[in-house]
């Protein structure tokens, strides 16, 4: 059977869920690295980018006789995340050994949580691009340790091992199979990322791999039994998640329509070729011979411990978005963009204070984001502060400058030339509101364009041409409204 891989251009079709008579079923297991300075069971540091094997405690190297000690901070972060996912916090949970051999897992087992995870069922609401809100169920969140890293590309005939990552705390967040399109899956991961970042429990930096997704895909005829699923491991960008799902869904459908069967397996997404391929046949939980880790006591959380974390929760993106719509009367779209991360929302709230919120939003989503993106600068490091942008918007509101001139002023502010007021003063940009001066310019322009002035009587659209000429003459400083009104009366419109 020939199988034709979807071209990248097909991504949109898959986003829309155009899978013919087949329904796409997606569930995700997201591994989110806990933002802690020490590992889950040792005091070794977790900083990214250190020299290989310099952040390894004896217990992380799996040396005999070493005992793990639970890092309380990591447990707090897991509970905090659970609360942010509107999930059940389990006052009793337990660590288990998941046994398997791999060179970057020196213990020969991973300490994870199997039967009793620290967080149980929850749910979050997501809004896929161009779609309606969908509620996605959370099955569980458990704590586990990360493995080290095998490095295969430094030598042609040897594999190196870096244990810096060994023992770093991960939260594995397992969704229910509630997603029906690549767009929903991608929106779900994006929403999770926003939540953990707002909570401060994970940096959510997918490029650094501290948030990565295992994607479970199957297809079925609507209402029918669930199909056999394949798991695509460690996909580390939203775009790759969408592409991998698109490819995998098409692969399943083609096999099934040709009368074949899907093998349950673990697959890899090759980002260069844009295709998934077999990694290993999928093992079941019982293959790992889980058993309670005898070196660790069960976790028993007090109500007081949970309540203290609950009392300290920040406003989460979804709540903030709803508040922005309500309080600032922003369109849904604006509110979504402005609350997608904490720093952007904070910036907006400063700009919008005592100003027209929609102008604040337009300036941020237009000029500000345009420049920040072009220069690859985060809003935290914006050369134009929220107060400074507010100052510029004030000068438009009080008609000192036009919106058009304001864009030039903004550009100069971004280059570090000063505040709006300083630049307006220095460059003599104050709008001309002196009606005598404007009238003189209007008369000159009409005198120089007699033919056009005649035609304008039958074709009022030509007024635009005259406005342009006067604005040019004033170097953009004439008040456009005054120019327009004067021209209309002088042209007899
Ligand atoms: Mn895991």
Q: Outline the biggest β-sheet.
A: 8 strands, mixed
The count of domains is: 3
Strand content: 15-25%
Number of helices, where a helix is a run of at least 4 consecutive DSSP H or I residues: 16
Q: Ligands in the structure?
A: manganese (II) ion
* Share of helical residues: 25-40%
Helix and strand content put the structural class at alpha+beta
Radius of gyration: 30 Å
| Low-pLDDT regions | 1-11
Shape: elongated
Order of strands across the widest beta sheet? 5-6-9-1-10-11-12-13
Alpha-carbon distance between the two ends: 73 Å
Total beta strands: 15
Any overview of this molecule?
The chain is of the alpha+beta class. The chain has three domains: 4-309, no CATH class; 315-427, no CATH class; 435-490, Arc Repressor Mutant, subunit A. 38% of the residues lie in helices and 17% in strands. The chain has 16 helices and 15 strands. The chain has helices spanning 11-15, 72-84, 182-199, 238-257, 303-311, 317-328, 332-338, 342-352, 357-374, 386-397, 403-414, 420-426, 435-448, 450-458, 463-473, 480-490, and strands at residues 23-33, 92-93, 96-99, 109-112, 122-126, 134-145, 149-151, 160-162, 169-175, 211-220, 230-235, 265-270, 275-281, 291-292, 299-300. An eight-stranded mixed beta sheet has the order 5-6-9-1-10-11-12-13. Strand 12 and strand 13 (275-281) form a beta hairpin. Helix 2 packs across helix 5. The longest helix is centred in the middle third of the chain and has 20 residues, at 238-257. It starts with 10 loop residues before the first helix and ends with a helix. Residues 31, 144, 172 line the site of manganese (II) ion.
């Amino acid at each position: 059977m020939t199988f034709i891989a979807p071209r990248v251009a097909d991504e949109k079709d898959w986003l829309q869920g155009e899978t013919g008579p087949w329904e796409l079923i997606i569930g995700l297991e997201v591994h989110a690295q806990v933002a802690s300075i020490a590992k889950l069971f040792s005091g070794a540091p977790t900083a990214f980018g250190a020299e290989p094997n310099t952040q390894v405690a004896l217990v992380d190297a799996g040396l005999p006789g070493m005992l793990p000690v639970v890092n309380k901070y990591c447990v707090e972060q897991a509970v905090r995340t659970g609360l942010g996912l509107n999930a059940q916090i389990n006052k009793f949970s337990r660590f288990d050994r998941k046994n398997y051999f791999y060179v970057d897992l020196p213990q020969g087992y991973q300490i994870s949580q199997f039967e009793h995870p620290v967080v149980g069922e929850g749910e979050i609401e997501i809004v896929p691009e161009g779609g309606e809100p969908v509620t996605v169920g959370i099955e569980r969140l458990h704590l586990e340790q990360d493995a080290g890293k095998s490095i295969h590309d430094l030598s042609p005939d040897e594999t190196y091992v870096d244990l810096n990552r060994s023992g770093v705390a991960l939260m594995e967040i397992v969704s229910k199979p509630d997603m029906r399109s690549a767009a929903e899956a991608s929106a779900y991961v994006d929403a999770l990322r926003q939540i953990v970042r707002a909570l401060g429990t994970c940096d959510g930096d997918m490029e650094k791999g501290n948030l990565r997704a295992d994607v479970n895909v199957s297809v079925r005829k609507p209402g029918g039994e669930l199909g056999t699923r394949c798991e695509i491991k460690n996909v580390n960008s939203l775009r790759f998640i969408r592409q991998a799902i698109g490819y995998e869904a098409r692969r399943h459908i083609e096999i099934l329509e040709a009368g074949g069967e899907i093998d349950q397996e673990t697959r890899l997404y090759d980002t260069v070729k844009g295709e998934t391929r077999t990694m290993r046949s999928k093992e079941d939980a019982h293959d790992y011979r889980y058993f309670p880790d005898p070196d660790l006591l069960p976790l028993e959380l007090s109500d007081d411990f949970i309540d203290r974390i609950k009392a300290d929760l920040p406003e989460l993106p979804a709540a903030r978005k709803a508040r922005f719509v309500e309080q600032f009367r922003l369109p849904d779209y604006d509110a979504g963009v402005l609350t997608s991360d904490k720093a952007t929302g904070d910036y907006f709230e400063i700009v919008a204070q005592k100003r027209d919120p929609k102008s604040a939003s337009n300036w941020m989503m237009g000029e500000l984001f345009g420049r920040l993106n072009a220069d690859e600068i985060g809003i935290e490091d914006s050369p134009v502060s929220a107060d400074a942008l507010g100052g510029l918007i004030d000068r438009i509101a009080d008609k000192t400058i036009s919106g058009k001139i304001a864009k030039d002023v903004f550009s100069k502010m971004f280059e570090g030339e000063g505040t709006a007021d300083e630049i307006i003063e220095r460059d003599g940009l104050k709008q001309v509101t002196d009606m005598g001066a404007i009238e003189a310019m209007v008369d000159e322009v009409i005198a120089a364009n007699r033919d056009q002035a005649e035609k304008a009587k039958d074709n009022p659209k030509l007024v635009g041409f005259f406005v342009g000429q006067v604005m040019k003459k004033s170097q953009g400083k004439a008040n456009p409204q005054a120019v327009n009104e004067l021209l209309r009366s002088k042209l007899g419109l």
